[in-house]
Amino acid sequence: MAACIFCKIIRGEIPALKIFESEKTLAFLDIGPLSKGHSLIIPKYHGAKLHDIPDDQLSEVLSVAKKIALAQNLENYNLLQNNGRIAHQVVDHVHFHVIPKPNETEGLG
Ligand code: 5GP
Ligand code: ZN
């Protein structure tokens, strides 16, 4: 979708720190991280909400989330996916947040 910011990242039209890419899935670091290493996993198929995406385009998302958790050696983290403004969705291209939860001695640094 031409105007979609995440589709622009997929097409390489705006930069992102990519951490995983396959034919149908992309993961990259969030530009406004809630904690160090906060990343987003997206299907390359454009759709605003989870129910807009065909199952086969979502099939890698959980395994990519596991790869990120293992690669970042995460012990505490949230996997989060928002749908709709009231549910705090800002970008209308389906995305899954992987949000590390550092212990109290760690922060954003
Ligand atoms: P939402 O509230 O829609 O679930 O989350 C959208 C997320 O996308 C936010 O955490 C925000 O920081 C991130 N984001 C928005 N624009 C960009 C961008 O251009 N690049 C990257 N890497 N992340 C973005
Ligand atoms: Zn899009």
TrEMBL record:
Domain of life: Eukaryota
Cofactor: Mg(2+)
Keyword Nucleotide-binding attached: yes
Reactions listed under catalytic activity: adenosine 5'-phosphoramidate + H2O = NH4(+) + AMP
Example GO molecular function: nucleotide binding
Protein name: Adenosine 5'-monophosphoramidase HNT1
Active site: 95 (tele-amp-histidine intermediate)
Organism: Westerdykella ornata
Family from the record: Belongs to the HINT family.
Range covered out of full length: 1 to 109 of 133
Gene Ontology BP term (one): nucleotide metabolic process
UniProt keywords, alphabetically: Hydrolase, Magnesium, Nucleotide-binding
Renumbered ranges of motif Histidine triad motif: 93-97
HIT domain: residues covered: 5-108
